[in-house]
Amino acid sequence: MKKVLLGHVGVDSGQLIIMDPCYINSQWKGYNDNIIGVKLWGEAHHEIYNFLLLKYPKLHFTYQNHIIKAAVKDENLANEILSYAYMQSLSLGKKIVFDKETDSTYEKICNVTNDNKKQGGPIAYSKGHEGFAVAFRSGVGDGLYPVFATMEEIPGWGESITKVEIQFVNKAE
Fold first, then answer.
1. Cα separation, 74 vs 35, whole angstroms
2. What gap in Å lies between CA 46 and CA 67, rounded to an integer?
3. How far apart are CA 116 and CA 123, in angstroms?
4. Which domains does the chain have, with CATH numbers?
5. Residue 173 above 90 pLDDT?
6. Tens digit of pLDDT for each residue in 81-105?
7. Of 13, 74, 147, 172, which sits most exposed with the smallest number of CB within 10 A?
C-alpha cells in the first residue's frame, strides 16, 4: 500500500464535487436554463426581507442562513423583485447581493453544500435517482489542495487506486 500525489485541485467556490465525467453533457444543467426563483443575501438581508414581505404579500419568501429566497418563475417579476431589493439597499446604505435562482446543477450543488450540519450530500440525476454526483464543502474555503491516491495490489487487477483523499488542512503545519 502506498500513497501518491495525483495533483492539485483549485477551489474558488468553497465546494467540490465528485462525479463521473461521462455525465457532464447529458446531465449537467446550465446556469440560466430555467428560472425558479430569486435569492438575496448580504449586509441588508434582514431589512430587505421585511421590505419584500410588505411589497409582495402574495409571494412566499423563505429566510434561512441569512439568505432570502422566493419561488418566482416569471423573469419579469424576478427582475422587478431584484431591482426593488437593490434600490432599498441603496436607500439603507447597506450592501445586498442578489441573483436569480435556476434549476441548474450548480444551484443544486450550492443548496446541498449550504447545509450546515452535513456540509454536503448527493446530487441526483435529472430523473431523480441518486448517483450523479456527491458535493461537499472544501473545509476551509478557497485554495489549491493536494489530491492523494492510496494504491494497493488487488488480485486479478494489479496495482489500483483504492482510496482518494483531498487534503484541505495539513495538521502537521
1. 8
2. 9
3. 17
4. 1-29+105-173 (no CATH), 35-102 (3.30.70)
5. no
6. 999 999 999 999 999 888 888 888 9
7. 172
Residues 165, 157 contacting (CB under 8 angstroms): no
C-alpha cell of residue 34 = 430555467
139: left (phi over 0), alpha (psi -120 to 50) or beta: left
DSSP class per residue in the chain: -EEEEEEEEEESSSEEEEE-GGGHHHHPPPTTS-EEEEEEESTTHHHHHHHHHHH-TTS-EEEETTEEEEE---HHHHHHHHHHHHHHHHHHT---EEEEEES-HHHHHHHHHT-TTTSEEEEE-TTS-EEEEEEEE-SS-SEEEEEEEEEEEETTTEEEEEEEEE-S--TT-
Q: Specify whether the CB–CB gap between 37 and 98 falls below 8 A.
A: no
pLDDT digits (tens, 9 = 90+) for 29-85: 887 667 888 888 888 888 988 999 999 998 888 887 778 888 888 888 888 999 999
- List Cβ neighbours of 98 (8 Å cut-off, separation of 6 or more): 38, 39, 40, 41, 82, 85, 86
pLDDT tens, 108-156? 998 899 877 889 999 999 899 999 999 999 988 889 999 999 999 999 9
